[in-house]
Structure formats: C-alpha cells, structure tokens
Amino acid sequence: MSGGCMSASGYLSADELAELVDCKPNQRTRMAAWLRARKWRFEVGSTGLPKVARAYHDRMMGITDEPKRQKYADEPNLQAFS
C-alpha cells in the first residue's frame, strides 16, 4: 500500500481507489464490486487489487485535458455521390 501519496504508476493506488469508492484500502472486493456496478474497465492484479488505469479514471471523472474526438465531419462528403 502506498503511504497516501500519489503513485508514479499508470494505475491508481489502493489509497486512491479507496477514496474513489469510499472504502478502506484493504477492501478489494468492495472496490471491484463498485467498479463493476458502474461498468468501469479494470483488471484484478495478483494481490487482488483492482487495477484502474489513471488515464481511464481521469476520462471517466471528466478531468482529462484530452480533446473530444469528432464523430462526424462538419460537412457532407460530396465525393461519395460521384
């Protein structure tokens, strides 16, 4: 377990997951249940701790600086009709 400081890892620490889920850092089953109920993507590590990518967490929480991808073009593709 980390000592309350943010991990340099690409994954959330047990303390960060506990804060997100509102449980204790050793309540791994509860963390996984919370993540499943909200349809978050995660893997379970060899210690039983759910592994949530930090970038995924940031996207899900709406705190990423990543620009949204445009799904459709601004104008129709007129070449498709020729």
From TrEMBL:
<protein>
    <recommendedName>
        <fullName>DUF4224 domain-containing protein</fullName>
    </recommendedName>
</protein>
<dbReference type="InterPro" id="IPR025319">
    <property type="entry name" value="DUF4224"/>
</dbReference>
<dbReference type="Pfam" id="PF13986">
    <property type="entry name" value="DUF4224"/>
</dbReference>
<feature type="domain" description="DUF4224">
    <location>
        <begin position="12"/>
        <end position="56"/>
    </location>
</feature>
